[in-house]
Amino acid sequence: MRNNYPAFPVQGYPGDGKYPAVKPNSGMSVRDFFAGLALMGYRASGRYNDESYRVVADMAYRDADAMLERREKQ
Q1: Helices (H), 5-52
Q2: 22: which DSSP letter?
Q3: 3-state DSSP helix/strand/coil percent for the chain, to nearest 5?
Q4: How far apart (Å, rounded) are the C-alpha atoms in residues 68 and 33?
Q5: What is the pTM of this model?
Q6: Residue 7 CB-half CA count within 13 A
Q7: By the 8 A CB rule, do 34 and 63 touch?
Q8: For residue range 14-71, what is the model confidence (pLDDT) as tens digits?
């Protein structure tokens, strides 16, 4: 997907003796962020607590993919 950018991009930081270097744009993707939000909603609802974690994770990523597709249409 074209718009699966980093969810929380950071500028590159070369590091020093106290803090390590940071790669530019490192971190979770927007897809992972969306899936995590959906997953929290599914689990918090109590409706899907008896489902396999893989089933709920698949549902969350399907939701995330739908959100990314919707963003591309704007």
Answers
A1: 30-45
A2: B
A3: 50, 5, 45
A4: 11
A5: 0.74
A6: 13
A7: yes
A8: 878 887 777 766 678 999 999 999 999 999 998 988 878 899 999 999 999 999 999 8
